[in-house]
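fwd from M.: "can u put these together and see what the complex looks like"

so here's what she sent:
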Amino acid sequence: MATGYAAPANTQYVGSLACKACHPEVWSTFFRNAHFKSVAMKKEDPAHTGCEGCHGPGGAHVASYGGRKNIRVFSQLTPAETTAVCLECHAKDLPRANIYASEHTQADVVCTSCHSIHHSSGPRFLLAKQQAELCYQCHEGVRSQFAMPARHRVDEGAMTCSDCHNPHGSFAATWGMGTNQTMQQAAFDVEQPCLRCHTDKRGPLVFEHASVRVEGCTACHFAHGSTNTKLLRRPVVFTLCLECHNGAGTFGRETASVYSTPFSHNLLDPRYQRCTLCHVRIHGSNSDPMFLR
Ligand code: HEC
Ligand code: HEC
Ligand code: HEC
Ligand code: HEC
Ligand code: HEC
Ligand code: HEC
Ligand code: HEC
Ligand code: HEC
Ligand code: HEC
Ligand code: HEC
């Protein structure tokens, strides 16, 4: 055995260097791995770092010159066991992650479905593939949404899925996010993910458009892509507004419903159909309760 990383005597742990001779393909790339840090700094504590931090004590494995029964082999673990091994160390790294309740864990999509420790696409985050491709392999329908004419530029590399989602699971920060749990990553801990970048929409505003805060951005916009300009959910703006401003429903401030579009508005007049021509501050205003300026 080479020197430098003396294996502790009389324990089953032998230290990472003991693995080098027989697993050169793994070793040859391991120096790039975040899990190599402790080994490189010669601060290895084999029970908690290096190869054996994940694969468990290697004494018996080395003594019998290999084998698959005397070492932890991940392909033989259940998804729950894999999660448990990784969370031995990462439970505190992922403090806000709702990992056990996440849609992924629930569906047996676990750490090693997305992370590849020895064959990652790059050293950062040890992802099995470049991020969008990784997600598309299981979410094929989402790929086509990001190919639509109006879209967030994920495929172009301007942003990633994890700008809006936490694949490890998240807690709903707003009522609107709670109605549609899609592992959205809160911005500023308590806001919808969109506000991290579109900070001008965050306020505080003197006159809020209730729907922006309550239902949230996705009441009117698609998050991924749309065939309509501005990622709108409807091709024509007024059809969007009339979904709520139609006098129906039981939600509102003074009446039993959201204010209906006033009679002063002749909806057959094309001028009136372009609501945001007048209601320009549709996301809320600091000077006008009708969002006219
Ligand atoms: C962070 C946890 C972790 C560390 C540290 C780790 N491994 Fe692994 N290892 C895995 C996982 C998970 C797999 C299963 C395949 C995969 O997901 O890449 C694996 C697979 C393997 C395999 C099977 C062959 C292969 O290429 O997949 C060998 C051999 C191996 N590890 C040896 C080592 C050695 C030697 C070290 C130290 C240099 C080490 N491992 C460090 C998690 C780890
Ligand atoms: C004396 C040579 C030798 C040493 C030293 C050694 N291994 Fe192995 N290891 C083997 C052989 C041979 C196999 C293949 C066993 C098989 O496929 O039946 C193996 C298999 C493995 C596997 C399972 C790979 C798979 O098929 O998924 C893991 C994980 C592993 N070794 C990790 C380690 C770790 C960690 C160390 C250091 C503590 C280590 N090995 C040290 C020879 C060695
Ligand atoms: C023995 C403790 C330990 C275990 C077990 C462990 N890790 Fe780690 N992991 C670490 C340490 C330490 C780092 C480096 C953190 C740093 O550099 O700040 C790390 C880093 C990472 C990173 C990279 C973070 C980055 O910023 O690039 C990923 C991804 C990761 N681990 C995934 C896993 C997965 C998946 C497993 C289970 C197969 C696992 N880890 C098991 C200790 C562990
Ligand atoms: C559905 C895919 C997926 C699963 C499952 C998954 N991860 Fe991740 N993980 C990612 C992605 C994507 C990133 C990069 C996040 C970013 O870009 O900020 C990441 C980042 C990380 C990081 C580094 C950044 C951080 O948040 O600290 C660690 C550590 C990590 N994952 C560990 C784990 C562990 C441990 C598990 C299992 C309990 C796991 N991951 C399960 C996709 C996944
Ligand atoms: C190995 C396959 C796999 C990978 C890789 C994967 N997912 Fe998933 N994902 C699933 C499964 C299975 C579900 C749960 C069933 C469902 O709702 O589609 C899910 C659920 C989700 C949901 C919730 C969907 C809903 O309707 O509630 C989101 C959001 C999501 N994944 C995003 C991502 C992102 C972002 C990535 C990449 C970092 C990713 N996924 C990678 C398989 C995967
Ligand atoms: C700009 C923010 C944003 C980005 C970037 C983003 N998402 Fe989403 N995603 C959302 C929001 C918000 C929802 C909830 C949709 C709704 O409420 O209408 C969602 C819903 C989903 C869903 C469940 C609904 C469905 O359409 O199947 C999946 C799966 C998903 N996203 C995967 C992904 C993947 C994969 C990527 C990267 C390729 C990605 N998302 C990038 C914000 C985003
Ligand atoms: C990581 C930053 C980021 C996040 C998070 C984000 N966006 Fe965006 N958004 C952008 C950028 C940059 C553009 C500019 C368009 C482009 O990429 O070409 C944009 C464009 C838009 C547009 C179209 C503007 C136009 O002029 O066509 C709308 C609408 C929009 N985003 C809504 C949202 C919604 C809704 C969410 C949350 C689900 C969100 N954004 C989350 C960065 C972000
Ligand atoms: C009540 C419906 C509605 C809600 C809710 C809504 N928007 Fe909009 N948004 C619109 C309309 C309509 C337009 C197009 C304005 C126009 O035609 O001038 C627009 C345009 C945009 C644009 C592009 C032009 C600009 O003003 O920068 C962005 C970015 C945007 N919205 C982001 C958001 C974000 C982020 C949220 C959540 C905080 C949100 N929207 C919530 C209706 C809405
Ligand atoms: C998701 C439902 C929803 C959508 C879509 C929506 N609104 Fe609203 N809007 C509301 C609610 C709720 C209020 C708060 C007033 C109330 O309680 O009746 C409001 C208030 C208003 C007000 C101020 C009324 C007042 O007297 O305070 C105007 C103006 C308005 N909306 C215009 C629009 C326009 C224009 C559109 C289309 C771009 C639109 N809204 C889309 C729900 C919606
Ligand atoms: C030509 C400019 C203009 C256009 C276009 C326009 N509005 Fe208005 N809207 C106003 C003005 C001015 C007021 C305030 C005075 C009033 O009630 O007529 C108002 C008031 C409102 C109110 C508040 C009613 C109340 O009782 O508080 C709602 C809701 C509204 N508009 C919705 C819409 C919708 C939906 C559209 C598109 C179908 C639209 N507006 C198009 C100018 C316009």
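replying to her w this: Residues 194-278 form one domain.
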